[in-house]
Amino acid sequence: MRSIVVLVGVLICFGACSTVQLPEHIYKRPSDDLYRDTAICVFRFLSPEYAPRSGYVAAAMFYRELLERGFTNVTSEFAVHDIRLDNIMEIAERKNYELIVTGKVSYCISGSELQESRVDEQIKVIDVPMRETVWYAEVVEIGKPVYPSDYIIFSTAGKKSPLTSATNA
Asked: Which of 15, 92, 138, 152 has its CA at 20 to 30 Å from residue 7's CA atom?
């Protein structure tokens, strides 16, 4: 498989009106095995204190994107509040998940008419039986505002920067 999990991870961070940079750092990539029928579980991502729902929103978007991409055996464990790695690994082993998706929203700001929106995320896919990271990436998503313009004869109004995937919280 040509990095379908990587593609899904990048696409999850795409907002319709925002500028998204490709992952800045990809530390590992999946093997060429197909993961479409693999038992995958998406857990809530860690959130910064000032945007407590941003981790849930980012994880929910990742979950939805996996389903839209044709992954057939995907579940979510968004109700789990203790998302420490040892706890989610225990849950994954107990429920026989093969891969888990977890992450962290490390920075999240909703912009304005003059300031960009920005979300920094870290996403990790872990092979549960092997207990190793299959894929890890850091992604920065930026939504730019539309600045007002003055053309002497007429002017255009500006627009607030679009909310990026995790700033919806």
From this structure: 92
